[in-house]
Queue: 2 jobs
Job 1
Amino acid sequence: MDKQTHHSPAIVLDNAAISRGGHTIWSHGNFSIPTASVTAIVGTNGAGKTSLLKAELGLLASSSGSIEVLGQPAGKAKAKIGYVPQSYSNQDDVNLTVEQSVLLGINGNRFGIHPTRVSERGQARRAMSLTGIEDRAAARLGELSGGLRQRAAIAQALASDPELLILDEPLANLDLASQRECVQVLSNLNHELGMTIQIVAHDLNVLLPILTGAVYILDGRPHYANIHDVMNSDLLTQLYGTPVEVVTTPQGNMFISPHAGGSKPKEQNLHTRSRNCQQ
Ligand SMILES: Nc1ncnc2c1ncn2[C@@H]1O[C@H](COP(=O)(O)OP(=O)(O)OP(=O)(O)O)[C@@H](O)[C@H]1O
């Protein structure tokens, strides 16, 4: 298969901007995201995180500049991207078995009734095995817990053997154990298959062990930095618009916590700083 080499970036934004309904959502997007990275996309509600994903998928054209994905203009590499949309709760799907739903990730674009090929069933089995739900292949989606259902959604996105996996808020509404199981699945995909992963997330803590970088949308501009540069109390306070603190445990684990003092966010121009983080 024509996999990207680790030397070429997975995503490149060159002075990219996105407009919706006649309004600029964000602009001046200038960064590269490495292949085989795990990147969070963070920003306040309405900052334009989903819009970035849609632009990468070619569902939304950039209003200026360019967006390249897996070495091609956005939209051209669609077949190499697995996409798990926000709130995977399509009520029409509850009667499908897990296997049928995963098969839709392979043949969902083919019109009409057609027999499932042996090779397609093999692909579906591999996707279910990668997400640890092979033993639930015959279960109906409606019978599954939220966590298993999210893993079935990830399996559907994996069924076409993508190089880039994009997930929009995959951990929302999951309990902590299910969140950790999903994160473990993503970790395995990244470590064992070298898959590039992008995750829109509001809470970074559960993802931190696997994140290599983050795109953060601040003041109408998307920035990319490695995760250690993003784990900065001032930057996160500015980003979340509420005081937060980065805490490091004696074991070296970092996490984000509400600022104990609850003081107002410090006013400072982080654009100077974030320019230094651009890669
Ligand atoms: N179809 C549309 N037409 C016009 N404006 C839109 C459309 N969809 C979204 N928007 C606007 O674009 C902006 C960015 O939306 P987007 O969904 O990308 O933000 P987001 O960061 O993903 O938000 P959230 O965290 O709430 O999911 C918002 O102001 C939203 O109202």
Note: The chain is about 30% helix and 25% strand.
Job 2
Amino acid sequence: MTDPVTSSARTQDDLARRAQELDAADPLRAYRDHFLTPEGGDVIAYLDGNSLGRPLAATAERMERFVAEEWAGRLIRGWTDGWLDWPQSVGDRIAAAALGAAAGQTVVADSTTVMLYKLARAALDLTPGRHEIVLDTDNFPTDRYVLEGIAAERGLRLRWIEADPAAGVTDEQVAAAVGPDTALVVLSHVAYRSGHLADGAAITRTAHAAGAPVLWDLCHSAGSVPVRLDAWEADFAVGCTYKYLNGGPGAPAFGYIARRHQDATQQPVWGWMGRKDAFEMEQGYVPAPGVRSALSGTPPILAMVPLLSSLDMLEEAGIEAVRAKSVQLTEFSLELAHAWLTEHGVRVASPLAADERGGHVTLCRADFRELTQELWKRGVVPDFRAPDGIRIGLAPLSTSYDEVYRGMAVLADLVRAGAKTSADAR
Ligand SMILES: Cc1ncc(COP(=O)(O)O)c(C=O)c1O
Ligand SMILES: Nc1c(O)cccc1C(=O)C[C@H](N)C(=O)O
């Protein structure tokens, strides 16, 4: 009979070795050194790059240079030197590096929430006389709330797809929900909870067959999973830049309006920066041509500075290489979960098939809320999503396989101790 202690120790050694082998073979490993990690910091495993990406050392330097040279040096002249174009130029770089979108369709501005509101309202211009917005019950709260608000404001109904929180929304579910009264479909490409990766091309086709546009929320895709907005013939998209795009806390959102919809739709927040010839300051709102009319007020220039460095890195690394590592990282975390956790009542709430999974993995057990506090105290930092899920967010450019191993080993220790405590209490 196999001695369980020796056998589990061997598994432990094998898995530690595998982590080291995977790191040694990782073509992106050099990028980890580009990130800023505080000297004497307490984090032994950062597993939340899908909530807030780490900062780059180049960002710290660039911010300092920007303040000293461009802000202090150029002062108001900075706007005409180039800042006024940043929403579009940075948008075009995100589009090319991460979204599969040609130039002239993406801007950076606002928060995701505000951009979602503006583009959802604009999208409704395409389907006058239709009354239903299709969305799913497990979309991120802000998406659900913004659409509730729009429905109330415009006298529309919400048609909810009942999503299984452990899986995502399928093309079949969308096909069953859309029809001649569908005004708009709003879905996340990667589900924030389970990490399920929706079939963007198929769902967009299905909505179009019913005559409805789709607005994709790309928060958990951008910079992790290649998106092909132009190839899908997507209509609208929004996403944030503080996760896999390493823009920093509160970094602005991006918004995409397909070129073919730009003249036919108008977002509702008519500020001067979205007007034609903003500095003419004339009477009456006339939208700027193209995607610029998605802007409202002064662009968040300072908050875009970090994106210049992270886009340099993503452009060099390439989104396909990022995705290849992302798949291996999630596979490895699942391998660890199956080796150490599932026998202790931990449930994997993410798809097992790599092509149905984005960049994070969610593991559930009833005591995971308390256990997350303990993990954070020990320097292992995933996040917790109610009611019982720990999300292991794996940012390919900053995360090593050994980091995943170390973090999940601490989780396994706590899970075993927790399982023992609850068994003792029975
Ligand atoms: C899918 C999704 N949509 C929207 C948001 C957030 O919107 P905001 O950047 O406005 O907070 C998040 C995360 O915060 C998200 O995961
Ligand atoms: N946007 C966040 C924030 O302002 C504070 C804390 C977390 C976040 C997040 O990004 C949450 C994240 N979008 C999620 O998927 O849960």
Note: Residues 82-315 form a domain with the Aspartate Aminotransferase; domain 2 fold (CATH 3.40.640.10).
